[in-house]
Amino acid sequence: MLVRCEFLKILRKKSTLIIMAVSLLVTAFLFGLPVLQFQTYNKDGVLKGTKGIAYEKEQFSAVSVLLTNEYITQTVREVQELFKDPNNVGYDGNEQFLIGDAYWNNIAPREKLLNTIASTYAAPGESAGYNKLPDLDITGGGTDFYQAREDKIEKLLNTPSRELSEEQKAFWRKMNSNVEEPFQYGYHEAWTTIISSFELLMFALLAICIVLAPVFSGEYQAGTDAVILSAKYGKTKLPAAKIIASLLFGLLAFTLHIIAAFGIPLAAFGADGWNLPLQAAGTTVPYPYTFLQATLISLGVVYMILIAMISLTLLLSAKMKSPYIVLTVLVPVLFIPIFLSPDGTSGIYNQTLFLLPYRASMPEVSKYISYQFGSFVLDAFYVRTILYAALAVIMLPLAKLGFKKHQVS
Amino acid sequence: MKLQLQHLSKRYGTKYAVNDVSTVLKPGIYGLLGANGAGKTTLMRMICGVLRPASGNIYLNGKTIEDLGQRYYSHLGYMPQDLGFYPDFTAREFMLYMAAVKGLDKKEAKTRTEKLLEMVNLSDVANKKIRSYSGGMKQRLGIAQAELNDPSILVLDEPTAGLDPKERVRFRNLISDFAKEKIVILSTHIVSDVSYIADTILMMKDGRFLLQEPMATVTDCIDGKVWEIVADSREAAEYSRRFSVVNLHHENNMVRLRIIHETSPAAGAFTVPPSLEDLFLYYFGEEAQNERSE
């Protein structure tokens, strides 16, 4: 009964409806931007919107294949053959590239795949396009794409600036050993859009915190604290009901945002590629997950961040006299990290930054972010989940206690 | 039922808001009188368990209110000074919400809500948002919520503040209706609010009880000390300078003065029966005069 009352109390405020409506629109707009901005090319020029998406899907249908060493060798050979004909080759003073029909008929339809292949052979930190493929030696038995990938991952792990310990390297090697080979390649536009946009959910998170900031402090500000704290359940069931109602509201409101946020790219680009491995988007990703699995795991982490942020909001709300003061703490916690950039993946600064709400919402599956406790190593997903769950477990009882112990003065 | 306050103290900085207050309260209406800043609100907050005393204890039937927890709060009805409301709620919704916080079941909550809204004359506007209510309507809603759980201890802090005389009378009658078999503590600095309905007067000054007396005998201590004298304006000015004048009334060219003094202030002065207001002014003097003029 009390939970229902508190839930309705949150829901029926005009400000709640306005904040949620604005936040939903902002989230929908932000996740809709990649759809609005999507464009691809063919011989005739730029293709935008649904035409562009349909064309892209059609192009990908030809390369939805298993990336075996034989297939890659054959593909590289085809590109090398094209570069052998001087009529096909252009030069911009810096590098060579294919022109005319050679490009439009043979490269354009599978350029993303060719770039993915080429980048696997490039040194860590270097970008490489299809025009690097002629440099590959495929004489003899052809190329061993997966060995090249292993070599690149080894180089990544041993990059001195990463400062990975032997335990951390072993952790990532073990993680990587679970990646199934050969990779299935294919169209996955919606999923890469979603996975690269998780941090945009921070606006939804802030909106929910704004709505919940008055849950306790609003009572102090309105002057209703005295009557409710002197009522039978004012210090017992009521604070618990307020917390449950806030969590319920937060989870429902956030889910609504997720539906809008993920629904737009999925509706526009299609759900194709949900079962493809993450390596289809970046071959050095060490996680053995499909796009759907990675999305769900990242979503789980973001939900934990949400619960912890709600807990922090409620704790501050129970301790502070005005919802506005609550927001002066919350907004910097959520948004200052936006302006901070990591300069690596190790060191206290970087490791802390990757755990702050904004960065923690980014999956960053290709960054090899790990945390070592003694000889025990955990990846960022685990550490973020544990950290935010622990924060919620600590802060929620403190919020309840804060309200219970509140002195009316 | 016995509510015992034992050596209650509360200090803000170096100033005692309540200083070693002790009393035993049994069913009846207690008028808690005192000038602004006397400690009335602080004492009431402590009685209602929303402000922790620095020292001392409150017992209900021999058990501390901390030990009793929600069993104590289920006996309590509180209308604080400057009670806030949820402006987006209607009166009915607010009452039903408060009923839930007070632990009333759904059916009882509805019955009590309708009955009390009727009693405080808000039934007709029960579905209107509280933001549209006048000060008087909010005060009436405040007392209605305090009565929801039919409390045996009813604490009303300045319930008549901001009401016009007609509404104050209506309020007094309401409190009398609610007071049967209850401990009612009614704080005010408007003496007439309690003079009609209180059984006992508790007078506070500087955080302490100055007196705790039944209404019938509360003015006995100043019996024979309240004087009236008729004087011309020059003499009246002189009396005002020399004595504690509690009232001045101009009659034609003369002035009727009401003076509190141990002995006859002048020849021709005669004693009159003391009122509660005289007693209040006797204790609070200029402090209360200033408040009265405000």
TrEMBL record, chain A:
The chain crosses the membrane at residues 17-36, 200-222, 243-271, 291-316, 323-340, 381-403. The keyword Transmembrane helix applies. Keywords: Membrane, Transmembrane, Transmembrane helix. The keyword Membrane applies. PANTHER family: INTEGRAL MEMBRANE PROTEIN-RELATED (PTHR37305), MEMBRANE PROTEIN (PTHR37305:SF1). This is ABC-2 family transporter.
Automatic annotation (TrEMBL), chain B:
One of its GO terms (molecular function) is ATP hydrolysis activity. It comes from the Bacteria. The keyword ATP-binding applies. Pfam families: ABC_tran (PF00005). Keywords: ATP-binding, Nucleotide-binding, Transport. Residues 3-231 form the ABC transporter domain. InterPro entries: AAA+_ATPase (IPR003593), ABC_transporter-like_ATP-bd (IPR003439), P-loop_NTPase (IPR027417). Belongs to the ABC transporter superfamily. PANTHER family: ABC TRANSPORTER, ATP-BINDING PROTEIN (PTHR43335). This is ABC-2 type transport system ATP-binding protein.
